[in-house]
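Late entry, written up from scratch paper. The run itself happened at the end of the previous shift, but nothing got recorded in the book at the time, so transcribing now.
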Amino acid sequence: LGRGEAPGGPSPAGAGFGSPSGSAAPHGTATGSERLRSSKPAVEAVALLRAAGASGPTLLVDDLERLIPSELELLPALVAASASEGLASLVLSCAPGPVADALLRDVPGLDRLDLGPLDRASVSVLVSAALGRPDDDLVGTLHERTGGVASYVVDLLHGLGERTERGELDATSLRLSPGASARIRARIAVLPPVEREALSALAALGRSASLAELAADADGLDEPALQRLQAAGLVVGDADAWRLVAPATASAILGPDA
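Output as recorded:
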C-alpha cells in the first residue's frame, strides 16, 4: 500500500465504493457497487479494457487515495470484469486509510500486499547495482537518510555521479534532486498551515521531537495532525518522539535556500 492524500480530502471513515455512507442496500435492491458496474463510465472503461484484451494489458493505478470519487467508482466494474473475463491484470496502490479500507471491503477478489520501506539488504542491492560493487558504509547512510523509501534511495544514488573508489562517497552531503524536492514541496503546499509548520520544525531540528516541543513552534498542533502526516508518509513516531520519515527530505521541506 502506498502513501498520499486525496485532493478533496480522504473519504469519510466507513464510506464504501458506490455508497456514500457505506450502508447495506435494502433487500431486493441493487447495491451501489452493482449500479456503478452498469453506469455509462464503467461500461466504457470495461469496453476499453476489452478492446485491449488481446495484448494482455496490465493496468497500474497508483495513489488511489488521490483519485476523485467518480474515478474511484470505476474500480468495482474494472475488477469484476477483469476477474470474470481475464481482461487485464490490475495493480492498485493505496495508502492505509478509509479508501484502502473501502477498497478491501467492497471490491472482492483482490490480493493484498503490504509494502513497507526497503530494508538494508534491499538498499544494498541498489547500491551494488549503481556502483558495480558493494559499499556497506554507503548502504547504512542511505538507509538512514531515506528511511528506506525506494524513490529517495534511487534519487540519491543518481546524484552520486561516477565514482569508482572506496572512500570517495559522502552520502551525507547528497541532496534530493530538484525534481524530487519539487514533488515533496507540492505535497506539502496543500497541507494545513499547522502541519506545514510541524514539518518545518522537524526539518530544522534535524532530530526527533515530542509533540509538546513541536507544538511550541506549530501553534495548535495536536496528535491527530501528526498522525495525518504519518499516514501521508512524511513523519513517523508517537507522542513522545516524532521524526521525518526520511532526513533527506529536510532540505526540500525548508526550501532551496536552507
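The longest strand covers residues 58-61.
(Scratch paper discarded after transcription.)
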